[in-house]
Amino acid sequence: MIEDISSLETNGFKVLAKSIYVPEISNVKKSKYFFAYIIRIINQSQISATLRRRYWEITDGFGKIDIVKGEGVIGRQPKIEPGDYYVYSSYCPIKTTYGFMKGYYEMENNEGNFFNIKIPPFQLIIPNTIN
Questions:
Q1: CATH code at 73?
Q2: Residue 114: CA atoms inside 13 Å, Cβ hemisphere, count?
Q3: Is residue 131 domain-resident?
Q4: Were both Cys, which of 14, 52, 74, 102 would link to 121 (CB 3.0–4.6 Å)?
Q5: Range of 76's domain?
Q6: Tens digits of per-residue pLDDT, 43-62?
Q7: For 67-81, how does the pLDDT look when each residue is reduced to its tens digit (9 = 90+)?
Q8: Is 4 helix (H, G, I), strand (E, B) or coil?
């Protein structure tokens, strides 16, 4: 099941995010729940920019926060031209049936200047779960 789409615009870039629970690889007995997420980054600005780094805060139902950061996304550092977009998907495990993710991407423009674009908070939740 696809959860609601979260959306946020910063510095001329719009980020859309949604998650999907993946029961096939989750292990309820070990409290390991996997969620796939799909991200679309839309360049609504007048400048080209390259995604250099990612920073995620992944919060589980106990309030435990895991920080994930690194170069690019899924092994890539995409350049997003004005009016264009980039889509990718990945996944993360958490130890509870619900949680959420948020973060930001560090972008670099053609002049070598860096700026951040925010990733909106979005839920990681098993469908039909009452919280």
A1: 2.60.40.1470
A2: 7
A3: no
A4: 102
A5: 6-125
A6: 999 999 999 999 999 999 99
A7: 999 999 999 999 999
A8: coil
pTM exceeds cut of 0.90? yes
Task: Calculate the CA 3 to chain-centre distance.
Answer: 14
Domain membership flag for residue 1: no
Residues, the chain, total? 131
String of DSSP letters for 37-102:
EEEEEEE-SSS-EEEEEEEEEEEETT--EEEEEEESBTTB--EE-TT-EEEEEEEEEESSSEEEEE
Half-sphere exposure of residue 123: CA atoms within 13 angstroms, side-chain side: 12
DSSP structural state of residue 27: B
- 32 in any annotated domain: yes
* Radius of gyration from C-alpha coordinates of the chain: 15
The Cα 52–Cα 54 span in angstroms is 7
Closest CA to 35 of 10, 8, 56: 56
Residue 25 belongs to a domain: yes
- In whole angstroms, what is the distance from residue 83 CA to residue 47 CA? 9
Number of domains forming the structure of the chain: 1
